[in-house]
């Protein structure tokens, strides 16, 4: 019974699908399938993979630690400057990551705003794994905050109100009522945040530099492999595409659910 | 309703076609930009050039345009390996200039003629202007506390840097291996690195933003810059002419001003 969709919409939509699919098909077609395991278990690749996992998981933990409270505040408290804070959170999502890297230098680099203070307590971020974590957190945390804030705003308020009338304080309500109800959204936000941290390139190579074992994560490895060994670059790209696809498959439409 | 829909579809198709045409035109695929009969053809030459040539080639652009008004030069600067990778992937380009002969030899089958060495370069140590770590010789680069930045071993500047250090038996541990030599210079300029190894010409271009510590000639290396037109060039004649011009006295003077040595 469904009417045939108008060709005016179908044609450009098909072009869009082809446009998005062709480059990925290119990676699949060009991947060294017979030698894939060998290439992905090369020490240089496993080292970058290990570092990528460490950096992205730490970035996720920091994002949860600071991002969940921030999302709650943005959704539940009407404080002055809330819109400005929300824009600030969105900014790293739309900034070119290299610009994020430059900004991190000016803020947290040795000669940045807080660089002197950090160095006096022995923390030097550029060219260190900690710097790579900072860069990844800077670009990835907004994904968690924004998706969680959206979920909080869409939550029926009467469960929380009921908890409050039974004498639970805001923290207790958050822990026993709100967060359990938000678990699926929280998981979705965390997965996106982690995937973004795993794929982080521009801010990392700008702010943290590129040193195997210390700051050379998988995306940086792909970039340098492309200059030396394009087939190896394709193999590692395939790995990252597979990880990203797995995250999206696990989410299956949980991100930005249509408003109810 | 149907004619309206058909009109909309037509309009959309036309718009899509127009958009695609614009895209292909922007791609500079070498489609003839002939401006009618008679006068000379307008040509845009795409030249892939090593990152260390950024300043001098940008300056050369104007000079070349005065002598060849029909030719517009378009440069794409990157690490030599990256450029070679682009050429191998079939990026549309007319000429290639790299920062060492090894990278150029890697694409020997894609160059139209024997590459012409247009200039030589050497390495130097750069530090922030106040030289906070007090670096005054190559030996100082071995200090593990020093925040040293080198180019990645994949790019010529990185290979040369390791050659220089290895020859002196210096066991340097870099804090970062940048993807091209300009990024090394950037980190030193920002004051994030205490020292870096870059080409003499990079140090010249940074002026007072960095201090230099010269490397004695007998400990230094010589980088050769070969230039060649590419077999897939859209404008092979103009590309060959440009490469020839790079070997001229005029181009040599310009390169000399930028700190390059004559070939």
Automatic annotation (TrEMBL), chain B:
Gene3D superfamilies: Periplasmic binding protein-like II (3.40.190.10)
UniProt keyword terms in alphabetical order: Metal-binding, Signal
Signal peptide: 1-27
InterPro entries: ModA, ModA/WtpA
PANTHER family named in the record: MOLYBDATE-BINDING PERIPLASMIC PROTEIN (PTHR30632), SULFATE-BINDING PROTEIN (PTHR30632:SF0)
Family, per entry: Belongs to the bacterial solute-binding protein ModA family.
NCBIfam families membership: modA
This protein's name: Molybdate ABC transporter substrate-binding protein
Gene: modA
